[in-house]
Design brief:
Blueprint: E1 7-16, H1 20-29, H2 31-34, E2 50-53, E3 60-64, E4 73-82, E5 86-91, E6 97-105, E7 108-118, H3 128-143, E8 157-163, H4 166-175, E9 180-181, E10 196-200, E11 203-209, E12 222-228, H5 231-240, E13 244-252, E14 254-260, E15 266-271, H6 274-279
Parallel strand pairs: 8-11, 12-15
Antiparallel strand pairs: 1-7, 2-3, 3-4, 4-5, 5-6, 6-7, 8-12, 9-10, 10-11, 13-14, 14-15
């Protein structure tokens, strides 16, 4: 008798207006360009420059930290490489296996992403591809012929806005104000991954649940994010100057802390990424 292994899976799909062979090449060869820069879009956003995929079975998916490559983080290993129709990798950081298929349609290609893991397996971010690929890949395909094919550089200023119903608010901001989503809007308020990013040029607007921030009440719960060169030095300066530290330095993708100013307005300060620092080398902490 064959032993039956119980698995759980999540999947998502998007149609792009290019043929399967091109879609496969864009997905694998242009990962650096379509993988969006952002505070939580890497395991270590304070050091990451880009994501990169090595071709062929045994190739690595890497979070790239420095030019030499010695310190890069191996995110996954490719176990199937079958252009132009199928790609499979196994996470190096958890128990997730991800399959991407490229199916021709009259309008182009349906790119489908499925993440699977055992019922007792761990997910430390391996399933995130299901959430990001439909939005980020489609966004890149729409603009890749008119912009440089390299990673975008995010502005040093972002804005966080907290809502009681963040999913409904995100849809409203998209439909009424015409803001451009840079990440998936969850299906409902119960989704455990409610972090919705919009883009205004190279600046990010982040929509989050109000309940996760103690003291964030009323319609004015908006917090600026400022990305600085040296977060530790900035933190020490804020403490010495009398700022109230609301949330101590934390590290989950971004590395940041939160403080209140002399009239009680909250601010988040985060470590600038290498791309931010390269774009504005004279910026001060």
């Amino acid at each position: 008798m064959t032993e039956r292994t119980e698995v759980r899976s999540v999947s998502a799909a998007v149609e792009v207006a290019i043929d399967p062979a091109t879609a496969f090449r864009v997905f694998t060869e242009e990962l650096e360009a379509w993988w969006l820069q952002g505070p939580i879009n890497f395991f270590d956003s304070t050091r990451a420059r880009a994501m990169r995929m090595e071709p062929g079975v045994g190739g690595r998916i890497l979070e790239v930290y420095d030019q030499a490559g010695a310190d890069d983080l191996e995110v996954a290993r490719i176990v199937e490489w079958a252009p132009p129709s199928r790609l499979v990798w196994r996470s190096s950081l958890d128990d997730v296996t991800t399959t991407v298929t490229f199916t021709e349609t009259p309008a182009g290609t349906t790119v489908r992403v499925e993440a699977r893991l055992p019922l007792d397996g761990e997910d430390h971010g391996g399933t995130a591809w299901v959430r990001v690929v439909p939005t980020w890949l489609a966004r890149w395909v729409d603009r890749r012929d008119v912009v440089a094919r390299e990673p975008e550089t995010l502005s040093r200023l972002a804005v966080e806005v907290r809502y009681d119903r963040p999913v409904a608010a995100a849809r409203w901001l998209r439909d009424v104000f015409g803001l451009e989503p840079a990440s998936r809007i969850p299906d409902d308020e119960a989704d455990e991954h409610v972090w919705v990013e919009f883009r205004a040029g190279d600046a990010a607007i982040i929509v989050l649940p109000r309940a996760e921030r103690p003291g964030a009440t009323g319609p004015g719960s908006t917090v600026p994010w400022v990305f600085v060169d040296d977060l530790d030095a900035h933190y020490e300066r804020a403490v010495a100057g009398g700022a109230t530290i609301e949330v101590d330095i934390w590290h989950h993708g971004a590395r940041a802390y939160e403080a209140s100013d002399l009239e009680g307005h909250r601010w988040s300060f985060a470590q600038a990424s290498p791309r931010m620092r390269a774009a504005s080398p004279r910026a001060q902490a």
